[in-house]
Amino acid sequence: MSSLLLTVRESIRYRGRSGHYSWLAHRLSGLAILFFLTIHVWETANAHFFPGLYQWFLLAFKHPLFLLSEIPLIAAVLYHAFNGIRISILDFKPELWKYQARSATIVWVLFAVIFIPIAFLMLRELFVHCGAVDNCWAVPSLNDFRPFNQIHPVP
């Protein structure tokens, strides 16, 4: 939580141009990726400890809201990667810092060129998925959760 508070505080305090917006987008995309990875590791750990709950999560993650949430996740990963490469190049070649605004623009253009078609394909896949399933918006019941010993009987 302190990282989020730091991001909010610093984004309000500093009033820069492209460097400020790049820093803010990089920080927020990194926090979004961290949030996703935390959920993903916990959910995957359930495969060993609670297989029934893991199966329920697999069903729940096919819900359209989760499918829609993958689009901003891809955006966060793409931007974070491209901007991280830009920051690494600028760190290894300090004489290129005078081109920081131009390099930030290049990152945003590269991000848009790659992200827009991917987002379109993901949205199309969502509509295809909802067209193939009878009740696309139904949330799986927790009654589908089976205790560990019912899936793997203890001898």
Give an overview in words:
This protein is an all-alpha fold and about 160 residues long. It has a single domain (about 20-140), classed as Up-down Bundle (3 helical TM bundles of succinate and fumarate reductases), CATH 1.20.1300.10. The chain is about 75% helix and about 0% strand. It is built from six helices and no strands. Helix 2 (about 20-50) crosses helix 4 (about 65-90) and helix 4 (about 65-90) packs antiparallel against helix 5. The longest helix is centred in the last third of the chain and has 33 residues, at about 100-130.
Low-pLDDT windows of residues: none
Number of domains: 1
Percent in helix: over 70%
CATH class: Mainly Alpha
Oligomer: single chain
By DSSP (H or I, 4+ residues per run), the number of helices equals 6
Q: Distance between termini? A: 45 Å
Series of secondary-structure elements, N-terminal to C-terminal: HHHHHH
Strand residues, percent: under 5%
Total strand segments: 0
Shape: elongated
Radius of gyration: 21 Å
Mean pLDDT: 84
User: What is the name of the CATH superfamily?
Assistant: Fumarate reductase/succinate dehydrogenase, transmembrane subunit
Gross CATH architecture: Up-down Bundle
Q: How many strands, what sense, and barrel or not for the largest sheet?
A: none
Secondary structure category: mainly alpha
What CATH calls the topology is 3 helical TM bundles of succinate and fumarate reductases
